[in-house]
Amino acid sequence: MQQKLQGSGIHSQGKAPETLLFRVSPLVRYTLYGLLFVLVFPLPFLMIHLKTTDAFPIAAIGVLVGFMALFGLMSQRVQTDAKGVRVEYAPWVPNFLVKGWNLDWSEVKDIRSRPTGQGGRVHYLVSKDERQAYLLPMRIAGFAQFLRELEAYTGIDTTRVKPLAQPWMYLTLLGCVVLMLLIDLWIVAVAMAN
């Protein structure tokens, strides 16, 4: 029986797997979770210190919605097999937040790129009728393996496709998150001491 390794793109027996499953990179996922946490962590302490606890229920609902939205976005799963590629999210994620998609390899015509406002590039899989374009999942663990699968099944050259953000960018952001957490702890300590 064949086994899948999530996000690694390597079959446990060294053979090409029939189905590969990729998830959002842990570096991306936990950095973004940490960023949201450090942004909202001091709020209840500051509300108590400033005696504005009457707004606490509204703030709590906002924080809960924010975390649910982020968890939904980070639940992305990309599955490839001999037939095509499928992008899915957790069943509880509403379609208005983010929508999954499914595309057979035989329907892929090309990869098109568009610049982003931050100077990077995003890439889209374009269907043969050119009526649909699907955003390439670029923050998954095993992105290079995903591109190899795409190239093997479609024959499209993927050498120009690069990840939207390099790992060092998320490591830098993670360092900022740790620094912000230290500042948060200091703010909370000062607020509680007064």
Please render the helix and strand layout as text.
Layout: E1 20-23, H1 26-40, H2 43-49, H3 56-74, E2 77-80, E3 84-88, E4 101-104, E5 108-115, E6 121-127, E7 133-135, H4 143-154, H5 167-193
Antiparallel strand pairs: 1-2, 2-3, 3-4, 5-6, 6-7
Helix pairs in contact: 1-3, 1-5
Question: Any overview of this molecule?
Answer:
The protein has helices at 26-40, 43-49, 56-74, 143-154, 167-193; strands at 20-23, 77-80, 84-88, 101-104, 108-115, 121-127, 133-135. It is built from five helices and seven strands; from the N terminus they run βαααββββββαα. Strand 6 and strand 7 form a beta hairpin. The protein has a four-stranded antiparallel beta sheet with strand order 1-2-3-4, with helices on one face. A three-stranded antiparallel beta sheet has the order 5-6-7, with no helix packed on it. It starts with 19 loop residues before the first strand and ends with a helix.
